[in-house]
Amino acid sequence: MDAEVGGGSAPKRDAPQPFTLVIFGASGDLTHRKLIPAVYRLFQEGLLPERFAVVGFARSPKSDEAFRAELRKAVETFSRAKPAGDDDWAPFAARLHYHRGDYQNAADFQALAARLDALAAASGAPRNCLFYLATPPEMIQAITDQVRAAGLAEAGGASSPWSRIIIEKPFGRDLASARALNAHVQGAFAENQIFRIDHYLGKETVQNILVLRFANALFEPIWNHKYVDHVQITVAETVGVEGRGAYYDHAGAIRDMAQNHMMHLLCLVGMEAPNSLDSEAVRSEKVKVLKTLHLIPPTCVGDRVVRAQYAAGTLAGQPVPGYREEPAVAPDSLTETYVALKTFIDNWRWAGVPFYLRTGKRLPARITEIGIHFKPVPQVLFNAPPFGPMAPNVLTLRIQPNEGISLQFQVKRPGWGIRIESFEMDFGYAAAFGGEPPEAYERLLLDAALGDSTLFTRSDEVEAAWAFLTPILEGCAGQPITRLPAYPAGSWGPAEADALIESDGRRWTLMKRHTHRSTAKTK
Ligand code: BG6
Fold first, then answer.
1. Ligand 1 mean position to 106 CA, how many Å?
2. pTM score, whole prediction
3. pLDDT digits (tens, 9 = 90+) for 338-363
């Protein structure tokens, strides 16, 4: 993590050394929608070195020219920085190259190595390589083997080039497969060369969690079981499976969202202060949270975990199909598109404080939010009749959209008598800073090029997250059901999820600045 204190100017970061970004899966959606638009933006911002190139690797035959034309279209469609015209595009296009190859074919990787050598020689730069696996997870092992066999996995040193590898989620399907995958990839690359990417960590608001907690004196003293009643983490999406049915039906919300994005949010809220901003120090504290999570054994899944599937419904006034009707989804699928669970961090700070997590697709709004719900004041004075009961204080971190932070507190409504109302003190990024923050992939690609792995998942971190979720997955797999509870698309999830939290005398809440309603509200 780079720390820039007190300034409003450009972040103080070194430029990466010359390197080539090699994208496996160069014809895919991720490359077009996220990676190349991000790289283009970094290029435009002058954050990439002069001697920088992209080599796209995929199976279909294609010329460099055709690849460039395809990527220009992608940048024009998906990038927040669009080329102004041919002259603007040309310097970037000249750095784009295409390499046809098969992931199982050693000769294709030898040819790739020769091409990377030639590119490096032509530019007079060392052959530093950043490999990006934008491929289905089944390809990870084959590609890492081939890269190593082709002599492209150098750790780097004073006189040799470096190689790093970025691996997309999902990293494994459960604890055993994640361990096996770690062992395999670590057979080719050292841990400090491996960058397991989770785009949530590239979001400004996610990075701000640590700043909020540890750059302010105010929060730390109350950030514990003495003052916090419970924590809610909501990751709500309006989208369905968006043509990704084949992948999603084998993943589900637990593997797709909870194991990665939600675990990172939970760790950042729950962790102790690291002793430095060094990547190992930060990640070690996150791992401690994961290792202290109260395990939900398979037999308790029915009580502490709610899974559900969206049924046909209406979103933004449009009818949408149910999950089982989506393309490439099994008509009798038991894959969850919604999950809610309750867990605890079993340490002194958080003893007895429930963390409620929920995520789902086809919910009424796209909202990622963390609510720190403080304990109610004693039931005397204003929290007793005739004034009370009053709403407790809630600190809400709006991760997206309408990024910001609000604090809900009580005020006296002006007038002769005493009437107490809840209001929110609000901080919004857009109003405070204007402009658009860097996209998650921009930040993360730059960090990987710089060799900074703070915002990437370490091997023990990924395994610890699976260690928590694998018993839950086992419990789910063992449930004798033919159908999951359903929620209509466009609703806030199943009644069972409400019951999960309401049985503890609490309710799901989101802040009004998300919902644009006049009060902070349930749901
Ligand atoms: C991805 C999941 O990791 O995150 C998708 O695979 C999900 O299913 C997406 O839609 C959500 O990301 P964001 O940035 O839109 O919240």
1. 33
2. 0.94
3. 999 999 999 999 999 999 999 999 99
